[in-house]
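Q: Convert this sequence to structure tokens.
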Amino acid sequence: DKARDFAVIMHKGQYSKNGQEYIKHPMRVANNVLTFKKSNNMDILLSSAYLHDTLEDTQATYDDLVRLFGNSIASLVLELTNDKEKVKLIGKTNYLSMKMKNMSNYALCLKLCDRLDNVSDLVNVDQEFRHRYIIETSDILKYLINNRDLSNTQLMLALKIVEYLDLANKNDI
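A:
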């Protein structure tokens, strides 16, 4: 509850591409974690799901997260945070492919839950963005499958993402 409440405050006034309050996205990511992942560390995973975009998209700092939520959660959120300079240098698809290949299992599970939420709404975004996101996500998944051993949970999430990509692809024609 503390992580959710913090995320609500930090994302206040932010909106997604579809016009919804942004906080709904971290809440859906947390729901994806509950749906797909079994873990003895569910509190850490759910807290990290709520907070996963705070370092990237708000004024929250890593030190804030350590102070409020401890090292485990702060480190997991940091692992999920993109390095904008590296993205510019090598491109988002290459960056995310390599980053996700090397993530901890928990971080990869969270990242796939995040991506699942993102692709679940692709039918409601403009065609240019949808097309670009379908290609990016497909390339990332191919890279992951070819370069990393995925857990059953990670494979289930990847398959669910592919289902949404197929649906979005039909709307992209």
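The two ends are 42 Å apart (CA to CA).
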